[in-house]
Write a sequence for this structure.
């Protein structure tokens, strides 16, 4: 094959090496605009587990590279005068210049034609069987063929500059320093005996305010040497084309156009805070080589196999990198809200790849400190959820160590929760005219036996015409109280779980069939629906009536009466359902509320009616009992609820007597575009908790106790809410306690024979 490669970075050079190894008869040219010894930046870091594939792909370059590696295993976080060190990690670094030199030499040795100082014009690509665009994040080849590749370039909110220092660090070092203009952060790591990489990053507004826009390299160095004087300990910062840049997150709809293919940063970027860009570029090269191994004479087939193999893997990395990038973009927020140890734990677990358990395996001492710190700084550590009267007192041996965060108590007003686990409200669609029955007793009772601190009963409607479906639960008649009281009394008599109820009005999503029969609007027996505006949920759904003042008064009164009945039934907590596109949620969302009166428009107006309901319910609901509000923090659609809106809403709810915000998302509009992943709503909870200063519950694909501990220890939420995992395993908490050896977990005496013994 004749192969033309545009760009002599890691992707282009490594692919050239691998293809020559595969078949020395391939004629390969690499055209690079720079001279061989030119490169931007300083050292490149890899986490050590990333390297195994390279030994197999080309042992020669692997040997040469690893011989030059600097190795270290610690991470240092410098924050507010403290250094928090975590050990047991494992990184290696190498000077980028050295790294490229090794690949250049290896390519030459194998007979690759390397042409430096050769700029390729993307309009005049050389003739070849394969043209590989390895021309980096600002790929001109990609942009020239944008119609086919359909690139998306997301320019992020921080500015960064890639510097070096002659201070030899002995750890991956993160430094956070406040300047008069905002927070600056450093990502620094050693890469040879004398030098370390020193990347400085800050929010764009901080960079501007500090006068760094248009600063020369010398000005930048002078400013940063002064700011980081203590950290540099008399050493210098070094430049190498160290201009301030903005990180572009690059994605493409496809990586191939005929015989032209994208590779490395031209195809995708991953933020440098997870140190994977070079590794991804090299793994692309391996995958593309493998594709040609399987399809030696068929370029389209090989490129298609390459894309199918790599795109999903790269997508997962990009999503971890995105979470990490956003953590750094919001470092100022974390810095304001968190103490140094929690801040460091939050930093280390930011991309979700390192968790509480995972870190405990690497660095048990640090996780012990984090756990003890969490327990000791828990303002509710003395809160004691009542134990059923008939259960014998259990004396467990005094614990040598603090229990993990999930098992720590919490208090909301006078309500003591035994732990941080919550069973999420889940519609059961199993009521006759709103009345709960045996199903609810067994369903909710079973979850209460399972050990969660709080069980929240499903969306329970405040009027018959406020229901989602004919099977939905209600508290709109006095007759409903007895059925609920039976559930609550059972939980109180036999478990330590507190029981909450979610009060709701379905709004424009009401009058639907049972989801397992015929989801969507009822074909027969439908009732009229109401909403802030006469906008249907989906184009083919019934148009609701826009509410007038009389409707509002009626709905407020219905919520108040339902709250009174919830009190009669003995519930411990009331949650107002302001999420998922139901009535109160639609008032909050600009996509569903287009009113022109004082209930529509800016968030202050959109909050007006939900707050009327909240205040009225708060006045009815006993002062000693807590109230929560569930919101959809985002509508997952352009033009929907934004960050400022949700923070304003959380602040207003708190001021009106809401004790905890239950942070959910979506379902407001039928054409939403959610971004799922594990723990995918935690960043919203974290934002609200830190910015509005209100306790939060977080929900959404939290799969296990390890993830709960990670979220709680990092200060991202106060309570973890699990829905589907509890359907599959009512005894989630009993299993979690067994796994963590938490002996104080309450087991009903009837079940003691199954209790783990140690
Ligand atoms: C601040 C920072 C720190 C980073 N730290 C790390 C790290 O620690 N670890 C890690 O793994 N990754 C890191 N990366 C990412 C890493 O640098 C890239 O992911 C990696 O270099 C991608 O390799 P590439 O070959 O695709 O592109 P590049 O390395 O960008 O190479 C592209 C090459 O193409 C050449 N070129 C472009 N256009 C033309 C043209 N028209 N004609 C001829 N030549 C052209 C360029 O001169 C360049 O040499 C970091 C990135 C940044 C910005
Ligand atoms: C069967 C079922 C019913 C649900 N009903 C409700 C509900 O009544 N009220 C509510 O706020 N959310 C409801 N949800 C959403 C869950 O409470 C939760 O927010 C969502 O499932 C994400 O959490 P998970 O990933 O732990 O399941 C329901 C979810 C399921 C699976």
């Amino acid at each position: 094959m004749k192969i033309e490669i545009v760009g002599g970075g890691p992707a282009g050079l490594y692919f050239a090496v691998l293809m020559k190894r595969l078949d020395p008869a391939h004629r390969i040219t690499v055209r690079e605009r720079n001279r061989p010894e030119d490169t931007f930046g300083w050292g490149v870091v890899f986490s050590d587990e990333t390297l195994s594939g390279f030994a197999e792909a080309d042992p020669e370059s692997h040997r040469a590279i690893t011989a030059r590696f600097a190795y270290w295993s610690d991470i240092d976080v410098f924050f507010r005068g403290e250094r928090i060190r975590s050990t047991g990690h494992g990184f290696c670094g190498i000077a980028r210049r050295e790294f490229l030199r090794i690949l250049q030499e290896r390519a030459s040795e194998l007979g690759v034609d390397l042409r430096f100082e050769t700029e390729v014009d993307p309009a005049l690509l050389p003739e070849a069987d394969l043209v590989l665009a390895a021309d980096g994040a600002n790929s001109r080849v990609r942009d020239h063929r944008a119609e086919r590749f359909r690139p998306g370039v997301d320019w992020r909110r921080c500015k960064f500059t890639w510097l070096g220092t002659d201070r030899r660090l002995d750890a991956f070092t993160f430094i956070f320093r406040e300047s008069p203009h905002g927070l600056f952060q450093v990502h620094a790591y050693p890469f040879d005996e004398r030098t370390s990489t020193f990347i400085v990053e800050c929010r764009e507004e901080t960079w501007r305010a500090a006068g760094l826009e248009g600063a020369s390299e010398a000005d930048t160095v002078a400013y940063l040497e002064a700011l980081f004087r203590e950290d540099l300990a008399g050493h210098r910062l070094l430049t190498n084309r160290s201009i301030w840049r903005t990180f572009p997150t690059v994605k493409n709809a496809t990586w191939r156009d005929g015989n032209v293919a994208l590779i490395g940063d031209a195809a995708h970027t991953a933020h440098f805070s997870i140190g994977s860009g070079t590794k991804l570029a090299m793994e692309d090269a391996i995958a593309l080589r493998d594709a040609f191994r399987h399809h030696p004479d068929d370029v389209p087939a090989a490129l298609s196999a390459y894309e199918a193999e790599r795109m999903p893997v790269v997508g997962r990395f990009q999503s971890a990198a995105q979470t990490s990038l956003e953590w750094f973009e919001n470092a100022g927020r974390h810095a304001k809200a968190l103490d140094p140890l929690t801040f460091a734990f939050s930093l280390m677990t930011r991309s979700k790849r390192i968790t509480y358990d995972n870190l405990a395996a690497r660095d048990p001492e640090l996780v012990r400190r984090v756990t003890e710190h969490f327990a000791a700084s828990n303002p509710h550590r003395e809160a004691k959820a009542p134990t059923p009267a008939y259960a014998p007192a259990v004396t467990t041996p005094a614990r040598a160590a603090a229990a993990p965060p999930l098992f720590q108590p919490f208090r909301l007003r006078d309500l003591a929760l035994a732990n941080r686990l919550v069973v999420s409200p889940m519609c059961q669609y199993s009521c006759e005219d709103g009345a709960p029955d045996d199903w609810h007793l067994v369903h909710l009772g079973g979850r209460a036996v399972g050990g969660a601190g709080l069980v929240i009963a499903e969306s329970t409607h405040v009027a018959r015409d406020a229901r989602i479906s004919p099977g939905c639960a209600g508290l709109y008649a006095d007759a409903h109280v007895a059925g609920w009281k039976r559930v609550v009394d059972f939980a109180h008599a036999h478990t330590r779980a507190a029981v909450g109820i979610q009060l709701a009005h379905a709004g424009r999503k009401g009058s639907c069939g049972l989801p397992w029969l015929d989801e969507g609007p009822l074909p027969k027996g439908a009732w009229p629906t109401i909403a802030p505006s006469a906008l249907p949920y989906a184009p083919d759904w019934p148009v609701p009536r826009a509410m007038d003042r009389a409707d509002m008064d009626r709905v407020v009164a219905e919520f108040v009466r339902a709250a009174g009945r919830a009190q009669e039934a003995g519930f411990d907590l009331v949650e107002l359902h302001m999420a998922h596109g139901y009535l109160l949620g639609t008032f909050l969302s600009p996509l569903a509320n287009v009113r022109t009166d004082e209930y529509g428009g800016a968030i202050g107006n959109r909050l007006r009616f939900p707050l009327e309901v909240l205040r009225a319910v708060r006045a009815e609901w006993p002062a000693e009992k807590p109230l929560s509000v569930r919101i959809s923090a985002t509508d997952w659609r352009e033009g929907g609820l934004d960050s400022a809106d949700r923070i304003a809403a959380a602040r207003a709810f708190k001021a009106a007597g809401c004790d905890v915000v239950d942070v959910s998302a979506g379902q407001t509009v039928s054409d939403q575009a959610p971004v799922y992943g594990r723990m995918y709503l935690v960043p919203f909870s974290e934002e609200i908790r830190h910015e509005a200063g209100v306790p939060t519950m977080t929900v959404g694909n939290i799969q296990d106790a390890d993830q709960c501990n990670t979220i709680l220890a990092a200060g991202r939420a106060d309570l973890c809410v699990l829905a589907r995992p509890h359907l599959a395993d009512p005894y989630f908490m009993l299993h979690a306690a067994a796994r963590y050896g938490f002996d104080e977990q309450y087991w009903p005496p009837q079940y003691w024979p199954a209790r783990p013994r140690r």
User: Anything to note?
Assistant: Residues 424-427, 458-459, 502, 577, 579-580, 630, 664, 699-702, 722-725 surround flavin mononucleotide (ligand 2) (CB under 6 Å). The first strand starts at residue 2 and ends at 6. The chain has a mean pLDDT of 95.
